[in-house]
Write a structure and sequence with these properties.
This is VOC family protein. InterPro entries: Glyas_Bleomycin-R_OHBP_Dase, Glyoxalase_6. Pfam families: Glyoxalase_6. This protein is an alpha+beta fold and 240 residues long. It is built from four helices and 16 strands. The longest helix is centred in the middle third of the chain and has 13 residues. The protein is globular, with a radius of gyration of 17 Å.
Length: 240
């Protein structure tokens, strides 16, 4: 059985602050679980959640992945930006041009995200989080398409994008050049398998697709710490 995208995880020194921020910006429910597990849950109960895990405070350069938030209208875009600023976000400059319609912000822990202008056809119908936009190779796009069973919805000029057959957020990779990586990523994907699935077989499948085991990962029963072909961390968890 193919593992499913369970969560997009943030490693942060301020998990509670960041959880409140993203809950407020997206209008998603804030949930506190066991062991100080903070999550923001999607409104329909389907799809992935956002998880906020204690992690190092240091940040070197731009993240390899960021959210592109959608807008229904110019007024909606302005309202999202205003809400993010009120909750502790800030404007940042990553080299965007004045004539570009998207607004670039950072959350209270410095993680970049964009609020995309209304009328973006590529993100039409995706929901509040239109895309998880990643710095990555064509190879890694192919890997994740096979790993999740999500079809490619864009594959041109070494840029790739995938989307669940059920719709929702797209995951995109911008192609080369890919920025060098220093330390663990602040954002990573968490995959999950139901309790009756063969965890070892699924781990072996992901390794056969091009994943490798992470030397930095803590060994735990029912959880694998892996790297994708671009060296990005991800985990696979056996639920139940």
């Amino acid at each position: 059985m193919t593992s499913q995208l369970f969560a997009i995880c943030f490693n942060t020194s301020v998990p509670s602050d960041l959880a409140r921020f993203w809950s407020g910006v997206l209008g998603w429910e804030l949930s506190a679980g066991a062991d100080d597990d903070l999550a923001v849950l999607p409104p329909d109960g389907a799809g992935y959640r956002l998880r906020f895990l204690p992690g190092p405070a240091s940040k070197a350069g731009q993240n390899r992945a960021h959210f592109d938030l959608t807008s229904a209208s110019p007024q909606d875009q302005r309202a999202t930006v205003a809400r993010a600023l009120r909750l502790g976000g800030k404007h940042i400059d990553v080299g965007q041009l004045p004539e570009e319609g998207h607004v670039v912000l950072a959350d209270p822990d410095g993680n970049e995200f964009c609020v995309i202008e209304a009328g973006n056809n590529f993100l039409a119908g995706t929901g509040a989080v239109g895309a998880l936009a990643c710095d990555g190779t064509q190879e890694v796009g192919y890997f994740w398409s096979a790993a999740l069973g999500w079809p490619l919805v864009w594959d041109q000029d070494q840029e790739t994008a995938i989307q669940s057959p059920a719709g929702g957020t797209k995951i995109t990779w911008g192609g080369p050049p890919v920025a060098s990586k220093s330390g663990a990523n602040r954002l990573h994907l968490e995959l999950a398998l139901p309790a009756d699935a063969d965890f070892e077989a699924e781990t072996a499948r992901l390794l056969s697709l091009g994943a490798t085991r992470s030397a930095a990962g803590e060994k735990a029963r029912g959880r694998a710490f892996l790297l994708d072909p671009d060296g990005n961390e991800f985990t696979v968890t056996h639920l139940g």
